[in-house]
């Protein structure tokens, strides 16, 4: 039986992995797939891919593209969630800052450099016409680090997925001053090159299983109640999130899509160079 390790954020986007693992769908195909939570997000997963601690990552599009350009020996095999990710822009509930415009010279908490919280802070700055070179960052590790840094005043604002952080807005830990959606599909599947070279068929099997699950995932009975309970959300918030979230139907990331995303990232100053889009992706079905 082949051992494979997959990593992702412990958020509602990845519940289909829990279902398929619980049903032992990979084991039935001779694959011992093990899931690892990465509360630190994309930067943490990129590091784990580089070190071989995981084989597959469900990772933010902008983060893995930047890291592959910078030498991560992995490829994007497909989109996982094709809708944008809505990043909430949060300040401490007691903060003096009231609007996004107020944050131009403030310090932004990020999980780590190269993470989504880092790159989307740059996108938000670009959207608002700020000088990106003057952005100030405070590395905090994960969402708990974000809570601590805003509460302690070590940083002024923190960007994280809107619905994951909504309970912190509801309980008065954070105040949301706005949102910043990604201008591209939000999550992709990245696989280490070594695994693609040696175990291509098994990777294809894993993706066939997860794509079959996500295809009808939103039709799951009482899904809003299940997700609300598991991720400590309100059912009405989960319903809203489901209404704007679309998983991939198994189609690969094309060179054209990868090029368009790179062009946008260059425009946002998120990356400073492009590479051949064929070096970012590996289509498993040709």
TrEMBL record:
It is found in: Periplasm. Belongs to the bacterial solute-binding protein SsuA/TauA family. Its main location: periplasm. Residues 91-179 form the Ca3427-like PBP domain. The lineage of its organism: Bacteria, Pseudomonadati, Bacteroidota, Flavobacteriia, Flavobacteriales. CDD domains: PBP2_Ca3427_like. Pfam families: PBP2_Ca3427_like (PF22384). GO terms for cellular component: periplasmic space. It comes from the Bacteria. This is ABC-type nitrate/sulfonate/bicarbonate transport system substrate-binding protein. Keywords: Signal. InterPro entries: Ca3427-like_PBP2.
């Amino acid at each position: 039986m082949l051992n494979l390790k997959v990593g992702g954020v412990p958020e509602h986007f990845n519940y289909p992995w829990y279902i398929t693992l619980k049903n032992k769908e990979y084991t039935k195909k001779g694959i011992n797939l093990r899931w690892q939570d990465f509360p630190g997000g994309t930067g943490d997963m990129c590091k784990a891919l580089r070190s071989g601690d995981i084989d597959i990552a469900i990772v933010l599009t902008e983060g893995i593209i930047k890291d592959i350009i910078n030498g991560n020996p992995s490829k994007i095999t497909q989109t996982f969630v094709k809708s944008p990710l809505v990043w909430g822009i949060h300040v401490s509930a007691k903060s003096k800052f009231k609007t996004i415009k107020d944050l131009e010279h403030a310090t932004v908490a990020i999980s780590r450099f190269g993470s989504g919280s880092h790159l989307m802070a740059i996108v938000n700055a670009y959207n608002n016409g700020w000088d990106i070179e003057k952005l100030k960052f405070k590395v905090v590790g994960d969402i708990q680090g974000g809570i601590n840094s805003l509460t302690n005043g070590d940083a002024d604002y923190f960007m994280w997925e809107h619905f994951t952080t909504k309970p912190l807005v509801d309980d008065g830990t954070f105040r949301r001053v706005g949102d910043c959606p990604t201008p591209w599909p939000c999550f992709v599947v990245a696989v280490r090159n070594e695994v693609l070279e040696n175990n291509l068929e098994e990777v294809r099997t894993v993706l066939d299983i997860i794509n079959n699950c996500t295809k009808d995932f939103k039709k799951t009975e009482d899904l809003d109640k299940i997700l609300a309970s598991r991720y400590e959300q309100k059912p009405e918030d989960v319903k809203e999130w489901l209404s704007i979230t679309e998983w991939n139907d198994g189609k690969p990331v094309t060179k054209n899509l990868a090029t368009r995303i790179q062009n946008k990232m260059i425009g946002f100053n998120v990356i400073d160079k492009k590479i051949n889009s064929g070096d970012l992706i590996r289509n498993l079905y040709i």
